[in-house]
Structure formats: structure tokens, C-alpha cells
Specification:
It is built from 9 helices and 3 strands. The chain is mainly alpha-helical. The chain has a 3-stranded mixed β-sheet with strand order 1-2-3, with helices on one face.
Length: 293
């Protein structure tokens, strides 16, 4: 079975173009205005562009059919990319936090008007980027991560607007690095969530929302089933759950019929379409009787 992403690439390209334009504009404005909030938001936007690029690459690679040593295809490329993206977010957050603390100790003069104007256009572009990403199929972890980043960037732009507005109202220039620290906190949260979700896939943990205990209990309770063991529940990639198990059925039972029913149960009750079930007759009582003789 092929692991494929079905996200719509054209919406990702639109979001990528918007993010690059936002980042360039905010870097220029941040340097001219001396705004840490704008520069931190620009860095966050660049990580969003990276996330979208990873999603586009993952879609292209995941569509390749399985062959050679890659019998499941290359669907996990997006998971590796998500790991890199999450780690980058955390590194950038650390760097920006250090810069914000340094500026907090000695706040530079900030052009509040330029910060507000740039933040406003950044907010507009971030909302448009989030809208474009929402049009794509977000079953892909990389696409979902990019979508969440766009939402976080919209909040970052709001923080920049608030910083500029407070400075224009007479507040201390320290407001700017304080709100920059708020933005870095959002980056840490987003990066950690991406790392946690992708790590679950790489460590072959059970998919979120599917309990191995419930799966085992449902299989064992099916008519004709005596025992279920060697049960494994994991994800090949985001949105592609899989199950394997060894099932013992009563002597004389229809192994193929029971296997067919169990496959239907997994699909209907747990949404698992890829399963490998070894179904055998339970001959343990017969062996005990032979030993007794």
C-alpha cells in the first residue's frame, strides 16, 4: 500500500510566496525601526516558509510508488522534515530570546509608527497564508504544522502592533522586547508540539485517539476468537495507522471468514485500513490431551 499525501500543492505555493514576502518586508522594517518584535516575527515567518517548503517536498516524495527497499514508500520523509522544522523553531526561539533579554536590559529607541504599519500588513498577509493553508489537506503533519505556524504568526503580528501602539501612546521602549519574548514563547510551544507529534510516529507509538488495549479487547471479543497476542498498533506516517496481531480461533472455525470480519471491525471501529492478521486454530487443548495420554 502506498503512503501518499493528498494536499493541494497550489495552495502551499501561494502560502509560501506570502510568507517570503512578509519576512523580507519585516526584516527591512525591523532594522529601520530597531524593533526586536518585528525581527522575531520575521524569523518566525521564515520558519513557516521552511515548513511549507518541507510540506511541498514531502508531497512530491510521498507520491512516489513503493519500490526496492522502500516497500511502504517514502511517506515518512515528511516526519523527518517535521523533526527538522521543530528543532529549528526551538533554536531560533532561543536565539531571539537572548536578543530580547539583551535589549530589555538596554532598550533601544523604537519607531512605533513603522512597527504598527508593518505589523498590520504582516497580520493581513498571515491571515491570507493561513487561509491558503487551510485549503490544503491537513492530514499531512507537515501541512498541519505550517498551518499552525501561520496562525501563530498572526498572533505575533498582533503582538508587534500592540508594541508599536503602546510605544506611540508613551509606553517604555521595553514593551517591544517584552512582546518579542511572548513571540518566542509561541515558537517554543509550536516547535515542541511538532517534535512531540513527529516523535510519536518515529517511535512507532499508537496513533493519538487509538488505544491498543481497546483494539485488543475488541478483537478478542469477536465471535470465534479465543486469544489475541503479539498485537502492535502504530502509524506508518501521519494519518496512516496500522495493526498487526496473532489471533487464535476455536478449532474448526473459519479462519478466513473471521480474519475478514476482524479487518472490517478495525476499519469501522478504529479507522485502521492497513492490518496484517495471522489467524490460526487453537490446538492447545488437543496438545494437552496428547501429553496426558
Amino acid at each position: 500500500m502506498t503512503v501518499q499525501s493528498v494536499a493541494e500543492p497550489r495552495w502551499l505555493w501561494i502560502a509560501l510566496g506570502l510568507n517570503v514576502a512578509i519576512a523580507v518586508a519585516e526584516v527591512i522594517a525591523g532594522i529601520l525601526a530597531g524593533s526586536t518584535a518585528l525581527l522575531s516575527d520575521a524569523a518566525h515567518v521564515l520558519t513557516d516558509a521552511l515548513a511549507i517548503g518541507i510540506a511541498l517536498a514531502a508531497i512530491t516524495v510521498a507520491r512516489r510508488p513503493p519500490k526496492g527497499n522502500y516497500t511502504y514508500g517514502l511517506g515518512r520523509v515528511e516526519i523527518l522534515g517535521a523533526q527538522a522544522n521543530g528543532a529549528t523553531l526551538l533554536v531560533l526561539a532561543g536565539m531571539l530570546a537572548v536578543g530580547a533579554v539583551i535589549r530589555l536590559l538596554d532598550p533601544p529607541q523604537v519607531d512605533g509608527t513603522l512597527v504598527v504599519v508593518t505589523g498590520f500588513f504582516g497580520l493581513l498577509a498571515n491571515v491570507l497564508a493561513a487561509w491558503a493553508l487551510a485549503k490544503a489537506n491537513r492530514e499531512s503533519l507537515a501541512v498541519e504544522g505550517a498551518y499552525q505556524h501561520a496562525l501563530m504568526d498572526a498572533i505575533s503580528s498582533v503582538a508587534a502592533i500592540i508594541a508599536g501602539g503602546l510605544i506611540l501612546a508613551g509606553a517604555s521602549d521595553a514593551v517591544d522586547p517584552l512582546l518579542a519574548l511572548f513571540v518566542t514563547a509561541l515558537m517554543v510551544r509550536s516547535g515542541w508540539q511538532i517534535l512531540a507529534s513527529s516523535s510519536r510516529v518515529l517511535l512507532e507509538a499508537a496513533p493519538s485517539g487509538i488505544s491498543p488495549e481497546e483494539v485488543g479487547a475488541a478483537l478478542a471479543a469477536a465471535p470465534g476468537v479465543v486469544e489475541v497476542h503479539d498485537l502492535h498498533v502504530w502509524e506508518l506516517t501521519q494519518g496512516f495507522p496500522a495493526v498487526t496481531a496473532h489471533v487464535l480461533v476455536s478449532a474448526g472455525a473459519d479462519c478466513h471468514g473471521i480474519r475478514f470480519r476482524l479487518q472490517g471491525l478495525l476499519k469501522e471501529q478504529f479507522g485502521v485500513g492497513h492490518c496484517t492478521l495471522q489467524v490460526d486454530h487453537d490446538h492447545r487443548n488437543e496438545l494437552v490431551q496428547l501429553d496426558g495420554e
